[in-house]
Amino acid sequence: MATDLQKLIGASEEDEDEDMDVKEEDDDDEDAIEKHLSTSPIVGVDVLIGSTSNSNRFHSYSQMQEQVGNSGGGSRRCRPLEEKERTKLRERHRRAITARILAGLRRHGNYNLRVRADINDVIAALAREAGWVVLPDGTTYPSRSQASRPVSGPSMVDTSPSSQMMIPQQTTPISPRGVSTGYRSSVEYNSCRMKGVFIPNSSPQTPAMVGDGEQTGGQALIGCSIDTLDGKQIVDIPLKLSERDFAGTAYIPVFVMLPLGVINLKCELADPDGLLKQLMILKTINVDGVSVNCWWGIVEAHAPQEYNWNGYRRLFQMIRELNLKLQIVMSFHACGGNVGDDVCIPLPHWVAEIGRSNPDIYFTDREGRRNPESLSWGVDKERVLKGRTAIEVYFDYMRSFRVEFNEYFEDGIISMIEVGLGPCGELRYPSSPVKHGWRYPGIGAFQCWDQYMLKSLRKAADERGQAFWARGPDNVGSYNSQPQETGFFCEGGDYDGYYGRFFLGWYSQMMIDHGDRILSMAKLAFEGTCIAAKLSGIHWWYRTASHAAELTTGYYNPSNKDGYAAIAAMLKKHGAAMNFPCLHSPSPDQPEEFQLTEALADPNGLTWQVMNAAWDVCLPMVSENSIPCFDWASYSRLLNRAKPLNDPEGRHFLAFTYLRLNPLLLERHNFMEFERFLNRMHGEAIVDIKQ
């Protein structure tokens, strides 16, 4: 369990002096306890009672009570003081033992325990080490990531002849669409525990072989819980899971996403000194580079085709001097209001002025509510932006970036350009806006009621000879509805009828055509550089027939159709990589298993469907974490996703981006875990693999 990375955690000269004082104090306490107990009349009563027969115990005890009573009232009045003294000595003795345990764990167990840690901190550290999730309020539940670590050796326990073992039956789930995941299910993840090693009370010293052959006799079993059943002890022993060895695996470069507000609204570097210190720390562990959002709303904020790259020029120079690589995100959306947004960056002011007079440039829902986070795809070819179409505006912006930083392209410092294709930079509709009241796991709402999208819908209906189909569905519920509550998404609903298939096909194709247009321009502007496009992981209601949340997002992926194959083919056409995030629980307030069950979600099944759709057309995959992660359980999940175990073709991610750089990541324990993750992504041989 201990590693060589850190021999002293939280220990200082002050801690050592404190431990020595506690030790001397403990020795004095033991002498005082022994002396006190040898003269205490209370112990005489207990010994006398223990030595008498059952029939004479009450009589003997009565005699002793009379003797104590006849000796005077002083002894009776002193008894409470003696009890208090004994309690005080016991408490000091207990604290001395606790201090020794904590000191040992800090020095030898690689536990980041504070100097004044208590037993709760110890239990939480041990639980996390065993792969459990411990929330700040004490809520504890098993982590699903334990399955990413295969069991080493045979999963057997050799017990004494009177022992008996019960192993939970494990089943392998059927992967959706016949996709083989190569991993065990979440049920198997949580059932990797054996309960039922029986040890008779009559022979407590009988050794039992536990796990890998370690003998346990009268010693207590560390890390196990013991219950009793029918006079026998039931020892709950977690199986020892060995960590997967990534030595010799493929080298996957790791980038760290910089804060969203690293460049302020004046296009200035917000905190150059603080950022430089953080980048220098990242450089010490061989991070490959950083990822930066280049915000349209900052660079072209005040007037069309007036670009201000000053802050980015200073930032890129700093990164080049540290010999780091750059990933650039062309961010054509607004920031603020979504999960993880800690700054507010609107669209350019001149675009907002146009939107006030013509709000149809924004996505619009059935109730007429506008979403100014990004422009509607209906204006891609409409000259509504000061005489330019949206595609022309995006191309001019990307071309300006290429001209401004051409030397960084030629020197290979800019290694990838991710092109923003919609809200949050993802190829999707803004179907789940928090500002309009959406909450997980609502199905969301279609966003096609602006005049330009409706114009396209009417044209598509006329081409099909069904003019009355030139409308959006009206039986789709609201943002927070569930599929079975609507006539469109329910089992056997309208989504699978003639009109439903027509509408969903048009809705999805509008999104794909938008991506096709922008990537064509990006390939022209960034010729010779890898480009990428990001998809969103809409995994709730995946285990229903309609996949309602995906449909409103633009992914036409019901249970009888593969909606991601068409997207992969479009990306393949432009030689673009697919960025699909490693999915996690969408809300930290409840255990992940509860959320997935209630929403009929399947993030694992969705991830493998998307990855197979990309790999079927030889499309490179890049990824990022969807929520901040600092614990090894989360890192293990990311590693096993990036480098699938036993993949016959040895496929793996092209690159990985960690979200994101912040002071919490640079805390001592968190940074050590991140370095451990980084080394395994690089395929380096590590000698401190935890057993």
UniProtKB/TrEMBL annotation:
Residues 12-32 have a biased composition (Acidic residues). Its EC number is 3.2.1.2. PROSITE patterns: BETA_AMYLASE_1. The gene is LOC116204286. It comes from the Eukaryota. It comes from Punica granatum (Pomegranate). Residues 1-35, 141-180 are annotated as: Disordered. Residues 74-179 form the BES1/BZR1 plant transcription factor N-terminal domain. Residues 157-174 have a biased composition (Polar residues). GO terms for molecular function: beta-amylase activity. Coiled coil: none annotated. The active site is at residues 426, 624. GO terms for biological process: polysaccharide catabolic process; regulation of DNA-templated transcription. It catalyses: Hydrolysis of (1->4)-alpha-D-glucosidic linkages in polysaccharides so as to remove successive maltose units from the non-reducing ends of the chains. Keywords: Carbohydrate metabolism, Glycosidase, Hydrolase, Polysaccharide degradation. This is Beta-amylase. Belongs to the glycosyl hydrolase 14 family. InterPro entries: BES1_N, GH, Glyco_hydro_14, Glyco_hydro_14_CS, Glyco_hydro_14B_pln.
